[in-house]
Amino acid sequence: MPRPTMRGTVHSATAPATAVSSPPGPAKTLGPPAVSTEIPVRPEAAQSIPAPPARSALSLRRTIADTDLVVHPLALGGSVFGWTADGATSTSVLDRYRDLGGNFLDTADSYTSGRSEVIIGAWLRSRRARDETVIATKIGKNRDNPGLSSRSIIGAVHASLDRLGTDHIDLLHFHFDDPTVPLEESLGAVDVLMRSGQVRYLAASNFSAERLMEARVLAANGLPRFVALQTQYSLMHRTPFESALALVTGAQGMAVLPYFALAHGFLAGRYRSKADLQKTTRASRAAKHLNRHGFRVLAVLDRIAAEHEVAPATIALSWLLARSPVVAPVASAGHPDQVEALVAAAGIRLTRGDMVDLDRVSAP
Questions:
Q1: Do 151 and 193 meet the contact criterion of CB atoms below 8 Å apart?
Q2: Among candidates 18, 17, 16, which has minimal Cα distance to 65?
Q3: How far apart are CA 96 and CA 100, in angstroms?
Q4: Of the segments 4-18, 24-38, 115-129, 257-271, which one has the largest average pLDDT value?
Q5: Is the dihedral of CA 345, 349, 353, 355 positive or negative?
Q6: pLDDT at 43 (0 to 100)
Q7: Helix (H, G, I), strand (E, B) or coil at 37
Q8: pTM for this one?
């Protein structure tokens, strides 16, 4: 049967801050063999539609340029849902994020083989939160619909819509570039999906500056354009973005959504010695920062965090938010207690001295 073409409403904030001309990291396809996606319904969620966040939270939201998507400056990553966070824990994380004013969820069809989307979809239904939530998902890495051929794109989007339990995706990312398929074919497939209302806007993830420029030429000829780029960027990983990508995204007015914004937890102060490293994928990735350079960055983060009376993770994310053209870093939380430090970054205003110190200590 044909899918409905009705588009849901994305609620905007009062006088949102417009974005300055603006994992998910690698796909995680392995996880426990079974993950419960049954969502415990809170009494208030069962009785009524959740109340909107306070005006102070709404005023922090930013608009992704050339769209009507008004998002919280911290996108909650769904890469851990169904992987290191089971269904119940993921639900608690989502609840806490929404209660703090968050409305921007980032996932992918390859995260735990689609279980992340299933968990998010179940939460959206149980909390009646679809209309107030901006959903971003990525395609191209799922084993059932690999790559960016027209057939794979159509199949992947339909599968994601089913798992998310919605009739449209707000922001669809190409997870990785696919040089085996003409970019014109990939964009043409999305054009069909956009005309039917199943996809609202298109974004790129892990694309080179050269391919972004090629895509912009095709968009000038009537094909969908990338409105955002998701790329690795943090205090510990600056050079790849701050060269050609920064120039291209700035020139094209694209929103930048950095992933691995906390360098696998290192910038949260989670790993300060080899004794802190567990036998996990995240810890093994963070281990490369346990060196003189990494410790100098942590020392400055600790000092500035103490001055602002917040967590180091909050300062690391605030540094990103102060840099153009970043609109919203993507960060995940494996426990609800971790969410507040992430969301708090939106309310921090670093001083000029803070920025100079962070820029200097993190310089490659």
A1: no
A2: 18
A3: 6
A4: 115-129
A5: positive
A6: 38
A7: coil
A8: 0.84
Residues in the chain, how many?
364
Residue in 122, 50, 112, 53 with CA at minimum distance from that of residue 77: 112
3-state SS track over 190-236: HHHHHHCCCEEEEEEECCCHHHHHHHHHHHHCCCCCEEEEEEECECC
**Structure tokens belonging to residue 75:** 């996108």
- Please give the backbone phi and psi of residue 184, each rounded to the nearest 5 degrees, phi first: -60, -40
- R_g of the chain, CA atoms, integer Å: 19
pLDDT at 18 over 50: no
Query: What is the third-level CATH fold of 17-362?
Result: TIM Barrel (3.20.20)
Amino acid at 94: L
Where on the phi/psi map is residue 112: left (φ > 0), alpha (ψ -120 to 50), or beta? left
- Tell me the mean pLDDT in the region 227-235: 98
The 3-state DSSP class for residue 250 equals helix
- Which of 57, 168, 135 has its CA nearest to residue 102? 57
Residue 89, C-beta contacts closer than 8 angstroms, at least 6 positions apart: 334, 335, 336
Sign of the dihedral through C-alpha 173, 167, 28, 276: positive
Residue 292: CA atoms inside 13 Å, Cβ hemisphere, count?
1
Tokens 């281990």 locate to: 287
Q: What are phi and psi of 116, to 5 degrees?
A: -60, -45
The span from the CA of 283 to the CA of 166, in Å, is 35
E-assigned strand segments in the chain: 17-18, 62-63, 70-71, 75-77, 104-106, 134-139, 169-174, 199-205, 226-232, 255-259, 330-331
